[in-house]
Amino acid sequence: MSNAITQRNGVFADGAFTRPPAGAELTCSILVVGGSTAAYTTTLTALRLNLDVCLVQPHRVVGGQFTAQALPASDDGDLLQAKAGLYTVDGEQFAISKAQKAFRDRQRELQPVGGKKVANPGGGWVSPLATTPVVAATAMNEALLPYLRDGRLTLIPFAEPVQVALEGGNGRSRVRGVICRDTQQGYTFTVRAKVTVEATDLGDLLEVGNIPSRVGQEARHETGEAILPEDARPQCQQSITFDVVVEHTARGKGVAIGKPNGFETEGWIGLKEFTSNFWTKAQPDKWQKWDFFSDFGIFRYRRLFRSHPHDKKVAPGDVAVLNWGTSSEPDRAFCCGNDYRPGRLVGVSREERQLHIQRARQRAQAYVHYLQTHGAADLKPRGDLTWTSDGIALEPYIREARRGIALTTIRHEDVAETFFPDQARARCFNDSVGIGQYHYLDLHGNDAKGHVSPRGKDVVARPFSLPLGALVPKDTDGLVLSAKSIGTTHITNAAYRMHPMEWAIGEASGFLAVFAVWTGLDPRVLATEEPHIRKIQGFMARNGMPIFWFNDIGHDDPDFEAIQVLAAAGVVRSDDPKSLSFKPYAPVNRAVVATALVNALKLPTTLPDQATGPTFSDVLPGKHWAYIPIETLYAHGMIAGVGKSRFAPDAPITREQLSFLVKRAMPEVYDKAFGRTPIDRQNLQRRELSRVMYEVLKGRLQL
Predict the structure, then answer these.
(1) Mean pLDDT computed over every residue of the chain
(2) Under 8 Å CB-to-CB from 569, ≥6 apart: which residues?
(3) 172 or 379: whose pLDDT is higher?
(4) d(CA 16, CA 540)
């Protein structure tokens, strides 16, 4: 069977799938439940680390929002789009992992424009990288094929979790496996695993397992977010959207999608709900209207395929995905595309969920019907690109899930610009296992009353990080949280849900699950003990995954691992908190080295006796930021100083001088620390400091 495993049109042949019979029990090292983008990247990460994985998902197509949800138009932050310049590298070298960059490059290769590989095959004006869902699926499938062929991947489609096999007591439980239902045949089967990953798009594993979780907009006392009201409002969730892939045809060659039942009789699919125009404000009191097929109209907003090299003009043969929420059109609120705002999918019965899914699909059909009867008749649904008959996606685009109550909850105060004035980054979590950036907290609220709507600096998001603790539920062992069920809040999920970040979340979940299998330790232990945290961070960075924001250190930098881990650990970061630059070749002064050494060794603070006063006349309390670490090093006998002598904290330090400090502080790592750094009287560079201090840190932790 292994040699017969192939793919066509972005879907694996039947030989790739496992369909367990009724009552069957399967075992594996890692069980990933869900069809999300993060489910895919969790699975791929674990497979590449030579573990066997069982992936249980609702469809034949892997990939979530890139594929089954028909949105392979990536929502990239500005930093990911950055081009090389002074002290920088291309955004794809520092803002995402090496594996995600490879996926993006493969999409470009599979969909050339004019016979050439281009940065953005689709050429849309909002998404800097877009291809068709079939191209995205093909690129994803190619990476899985070797593991399907050698049997390490068990891929089970058309299945959903219905019960979690739990054991334990005293307030803690352990996941041993998941009982799943075949959605086509109705029977159940069980998959048991050493570690289970919750990667469903709606957090369903948490619900069926009665695992502590939150739904919708929380109460202030639950998250500590000052912007929230005192009462929880679970009905306040983000809207869903059924995306539609359509082609711009030659004049008169459009294919009608048809009018759905309820069109114009149901308020949410009536004529007043839609528009074919996009509006921008040219001036404070003047609006600019863009027609549907214009350069900055709705069609080119998320164009997926262009029939000619010109990136702006729309022409017959071009293909776009309609994913359109509210418009800025004057005097019209809460219109104008295929976002579905009535109701919600999380925290309701399965019957109510299915009702809203059906209605959301009808709205998508109604929107295309409206367009085809209001000036855009030359549209043809491309069901061949969505694995459906009408070009409407297999499943809705999901923006929000049930979220697990994790060891760490990422709050509004950890992300929004309001709380980081004059800083380049949001909160830098010490246990970071990923980074992400989207310029604002993109909340598409449903029509429930009581939504909190951040404004101004409250809605702007600084470049953020992903704490390992957000992947670990507080009271449940054997389980890793992923996708949109991690420890975010209703507000912060709005930034963490984007394509590049969900990919990164899946990779981090995969590494955590793999380490849990390798060590036999629970994810909770790995996420709470520093030696394990640093080991995971180092292994991730070694595999090309950024965990700290720097815009001038790429995956291929020989010191990438050391610089990334030391920055996450708070040992060596930017010399200016207003900058994302690390400046690897810049010189280092004595105060920076003293601080780094104290942080790497975690030395207890020791200050001079008040009677004797400060040791150094040029390093005084309240006068120099490095007073405490410099005095600490002196007290521990690592630097010389007599009476009121000078330390010269802002003077450059040489490689030789650093070698003296390391030899005194930790002689057992001395040789390894300077294995790639000459011991001479040249000024020490920042990259060299990280390289040396990394060995000191590992020596302290006995890694």
Answers:
(1) 93
(2) 430, 534, 537, 599, 600, 697
(3) 379
(4) 29
The position carrying tokens 């990923």 is 434
- Give residue 1's pLDDT band: very low, low, confident or very high (50, 70, 90): very low
Extract the tokens encoding 37.
Answer: 């983008």
Phi-psi bin for 171: left (phi > 0), alpha (psi -120 to 50), beta? left
d(C-alpha 245, C-alpha 383), whole Å: 7
In this prediction the pTM is 0.96
Map tokens 């001038």 to a residue.
552
Cα 639 to Cα 665: distance, rounded to the nearest angstrom: 10
Rounded CA gap, 321 and 314, in Å?
Answer: 14
Is residue 455 helix, strand or coil?
coil
Residues 574 and 594: their CA atoms lie apart, in Å, by 15
Asked if the model's pLDDT at residue 2 lies above 50, the reply is no
Give the 3-state secondary structure of residue 207: helix
- Would you say the C-alpha torsion 288, 294, 295, 298 has a positive or negative sign? positive
Is the pLDDT assigned to residue 145 strictly greater than 60? yes
User: Which residues touch 329 (CB under 8 Å, ≥6 apart)?
Assistant: 275, 277, 279, 335, 336
Tokens 């090496």 correspond to: 98
pLDDT at 645: 81
- Determine what percent of the chain is predicted with pLDDT higher than 70: 96
Question: Which amino acid, residue 351?
Answer: E
3-state SS record for 242-277: CCEEEEECCCCCCCCCCCCCCCCCCHHHCHHHECCC
Q: What is the pLDDT of residues 623-661, one digit of tens each?
A: 898 999 998 998 888 887 545 588 899 999 999 999 999
Q: Where are the alpha helices (DSSP H) in 400-454?
A: none
pLDDT, mean of residues 606-610: 76
**Euclidean distance between CA atoms 247 and 377, whole angstroms:** 11
Strands (E), 312-402: 319-322, 339-340, 379-381
* C-alpha to C-alpha distance for 437 and 75, rounded to whole angstroms: 10
Q: Which residue has the tokens 């399967």?
A: 26
Q: What angle do CA 104, 300, 246 make, to 5 degrees?
A: 85
Residue 3 pLDDT > 60: no
The three-state secondary structure class of 333 is: coil
Residue 232 structure tokens = 């929880």
d(CA 513, CA 159): 22
Coil vs helix vs strand at 512:
helix
